[in-house]
Amino acid sequence: MKKSFLILLFVFFFTNIFSQNHLWTCYNVSNSPIPSNCVNTMILDKYDNKWIGTHDGLAFFDGKNWKVFKNCFENDPIKSLALDEKNHLWIGTEGGLFFYDGNKINKIEIPLLKSLRYWVTRIIINPINNKIWFGTSRGLVCLDGMNWQLYTTQNSQIIDNRVMAMASDSKGNLWIGTFGYGISIFDGKNWKTINKNNSLLTENAAVEGIFFDSDNRPWVIDSQNQTYIYDINWKHLSLYTNQKIHTFAFDRLDNLWIGTFMGLGKFSDTKSIDKYVKVEMVGNQKKEYDYNSYEQMKVNYFTSRNSDIPDSDIQCIVIDKKNTIWIATLSGGIAYYENKNSR
To answer: Is the Cα dihedral 31, 34, 35, 41 positive or negative?
Structure first.
C-alpha cells in the first residue's frame, strides 16, 4: 500500500513538473479562423508573425489577430511559402505560383511553364543577392529582378527536374534535393553533384530535406528515413526511427527538432555528432563502424498520446526569436511549445 502510494505520488509530481515547464497551445478550425486543420507549411516574418499554408487557403497570425485568404489558389493546397526583401509573400501550390503584395493575391505565370501544370515544392530567397529560387516538379526556376530562368536536365547540369528540397548555405550556394538522383549544388555559375558515387546517399532515394545548422553543416533526410551530415566528410548518422521523417529545425540552443509521421522529436547533442556516426565517407572509400563503437542518437518524442500536441504527424517546424517551437500538423492545425527552461 505504501509502495503504491509512493509510485502514485511520483507520477503526480513528475507530471506536474512536466506540465509547468512544457506548455502547448493549439489553434485549429474549432478555436480559431485557420482555414483548415491540414497545414502543410508555415514561415515567420521578421516580427515573428506567422504565415500558414494549408490545404484550403492561407492564414496570417500575429499572435492575436488573424487574416485568412480563401478561394484564391484555384482550390490547390499550398506547399511552400517565402517572404522577399520587400516583405511580399510568394506562395507555391500544387497548381502553380502566387504572389501577395500586401493588397491582392495574383497568380504568376512562370515563362516556359505556362502550358504545363506543376507543383512549386520549395521557395528560397538568396540572402546575399535576393534572387528568388523556385523548386518545381518540372525544374528549377530563378527570378532575378524581372528576368526568369528555367534550369532543367536539358539546359543545365541539374541532376533531376523533380525538386524535393532546397536550402541556401552561408555562402549563398543553393543546395537542391531531387526525387531520385541526389543533390545538385549551384553557386550561380557552376554545378556540383552529390550522389551515391561520391557520398553516402542511397541510390534511388529521394532527398526530401536539407537543413543547415549554426556551424553551416548540411543535414540531409532521404525518403528511406536515413539522415546524413557533411562535416569534413559525409557521415551516415545513427538516427534510428521507423517513422517517416518530414522535417528538421534547429533552435537557438542548437537542439535538433525532428518532425515525423508519429511525433515531434528532440535531440540535444548536435555538437558531439561523431560518436553517432555509423558510416563515413573517407576519400573515395566508405568506412563502416562496428555496431558497438557508435551510439544511437537518443531522441525524446512528443506525440498526441504523451503530450497535448493536436496531431502526431508533423509537417513543418519553425522557431521564433523567443526559442518557441511552432509546429504545423497534417490534421490538427498548428501549435506552439514553450519550454520555460530554454531561455
So the answer is: negative
- Distance, in Å, from the CA atom of 232 to the CA atom of 1, rounded to the nearest integer, reads 58
Q: Which residue segment(s) compose the domain that 77 sits in?
A: 25-342
Q: What is the CA radius of gyration of the chain?
A: 21
Do strands 300-302 and 263-267 pair parallel, antiparallel, or not at all (unpaired)?
antiparallel
Beta partners for residue 335, in sequence order: 26, 327
Burial of 158 (0-12, 13-18, 19+ CB in 10 A): buried
Question: How many Cβ atoms are within 10 Å of 19's Cβ, its own excluded?
Answer: 12
Asked if the structure places residue 325 within a domain, the reply is yes
CATH code of the domain containing 287? 2.130.10.10
Give kind and range of the element (H or E) at residue 243: none
d(CA 228, CA 9): 43
Q: What is this structure's pTM?
A: 0.90
Neighbouring residues of 293: CB distance < 8 A, sequence distance ≥ 6: none
Q: Which residues pair with 206 in a beta bridge?
A: none
For residue 16, tell me if it sits in a domain.
Answer: no
Q: Characterise 260 by phi-psi region: left (phi > 0), alpha (psi -120 to 50), beta (else).
A: beta
Distance CA 103, CA 93 (A): 19
254-313 pLDDT per residue, tens = 999 999 999 999 999 999 999 999 999 998 899 999 888 899 999 999 999 999 999 999
